[in-house]
UniProtKB/TrEMBL annotation:
Designated name of the protein: Chloride transporter
One Pfam family linked to the record: Chorismate_bind
Molecular function GO labels: 4-amino-4-deoxychorismate synthase activity
Domain of life per record: Bacteria
Family matches, as PANTHER family: AMINOBENZOATE/ANTHRANILATE SYNTHASE, AMINODEOXYCHORISMATE SYNTHASE COMPONENT 1
Domain Chorismate-utilising enzyme C-terminal positions: 79-332
InterPro entries in the record: ADC_synthase (IPR005801), Anth_synth_I-like (IPR019999), Chorismate_C (IPR015890)
GO terms of biological process kind: L-tryptophan biosynthetic process
Length: 356
């Protein structure tokens, strides 16, 4: 692998000069600027950097990104397995065990030139081909973290003692595609996030300033809500993460039941996908963590050699149609996979091996 220096990039912020790395969330209450990556399964990496400056994503990456062949992607769940999973979740709902669960699949493809693969170069491509409000890079090769994200979803934003989340539920090509099911699902997850924040916020301080707002993103639209609260006394980052992680929008309701359903149906770990990716400025008491969706990561220890991974999924409710949910996972992945195959002929088609 090329000698890639550690860095973190979040929008126009560039952090270099790695000082230390820890898995202890209490460090985020200390001092300095931290890049944070929390895997869905619970692994936490907090990296403190000494040099943080404004630096826009370069129009052209220092080294070209050579992505996977578009037809080399495979899925942890194929069409038959995914739609069967949707039907199984509906059975759990009918039994009263869960109201909603997010069913995800992980896509993987071998890297054609892994020794020169740089996720920051992929971030530069994503900035042009799929701009996103919480885009970024976390590059810590020695710690097994190489992530490029184009996340549209806010997990946690913090300003002093004020904390807010921006759960997304409901996806379509246009606003006209959004169904009553999408609105009902969004409200259900907002209630879950309110409950999560209620565990760590002062009594009566949790509010919902925005409910089911339509946001436009490249190639699709989302329903987005905002949940806000004031942290209770003596609540720091360990308590905040323990009370809200993993993000409610990518688990389900009730969260504990949804996590059991997910574990039984999904065949691959999500890793940073559906976890948290972002930064904490402990000196200023500010932070911004995104939900790790629309996110690529390099898995170098993978059997058979280094691969690029990407996750996609959909929220399943009683009203879900299995084929429509499968199509939603394809819609969310199509544009991003095209961008990631940057050195190959571009097009809007889905890689043929993932058509089902």
């Amino acid at each position: 692998m090329a000698d890639l220096a550690p860095l973190a990039r979040f929008g126009s912020l560039l952090a270099t000069g790695l000082r230390d790395v820890t898995s202890d969330p209490a460090a985020l209450d200390s001092a300095g600027f931290w890049a944070v990556v929390a895997d869905f399964e619970g692994r936490l990496v907090c990296a403190r950097f000494s040099d943080v400056r404004r630096a826009p994503v370069p129009a052209a990456a220092p080294a070209p990104w050579r992505g996977p062949d578009p037809d080399s992607w495979t899925s942890s769940l194929d069409r038959a397995a995914y739609t069967a999973g949707v039907r199984r979740i509906r059975e759990h709902i009918a039994a009263g065990e869960v109201y909603q669960a997010n069913l995800c699949r992980v896509l993987s493809a071998p890297l054609p030139d892994p020794e020169r693969a740089d996720v920051d170069a992929l971030t530069a491509l994503l900035a042009r081909g799929n701009p996103a409000p919480y885009a970024g890079t976390v590059r810590l090769p020695a710690h097994g973290v190489e992530i490029a994200t184009a996340s549209p979803e806010l997990f946690l934003r913090r300003r002093g003692r004020t904390v807010e989340s921006g759960p997304i539920k409901g996806t379509g090509r246009t606003a006209d595609d959004l169904l009553e099911k999408d609105h009902a699902e969004n409200v259900m997850i907002v209630d879950l996030v309110r409950n999560d924040l209620g565990r760590v916020c002062a009594t009566g301080s949790v509010t919902v300033p925005d409910l089911c707002a339509v946001e436009e993103h490249p190639g699709l639209v989302h329903l987005v809500s905002t949940v806000r609260g004031e942290l209770a006394e003596r609540v720091g980052w360990p308590e905040l993460l323990a009370g809200t992680f993993p993000p409610g929008s990518v688990t389900g309701a009730p969260k504990s039941s949804a996590l059991r359903v997910i574990a039984a149906l999904e065949t691959a770990p999500r890793g940073p996908y559906c976890g948290g990716v972002g930064w904490v400025d402990a000196d200023r008491g500010t932070a911004q963590l995104a939900v790790g969706i629309r996110t690529f990561w390099i898995d170098r220890p993978a059997p058979g050699g280094p691969v690029l991974r990407f996750g996609t999924g959909a929220g399943i409710t009683w009203d879900s149609d299995p084929e429509r949910e499968w199509a939603e996972t394809r819609l969310k992945a199509r544009r991003l996979l095209t961008v990631a195959s940057g050195a190959y002929p571009r097009g809007s088609r889905m890689p043929s091996r993932l058509e089902g």
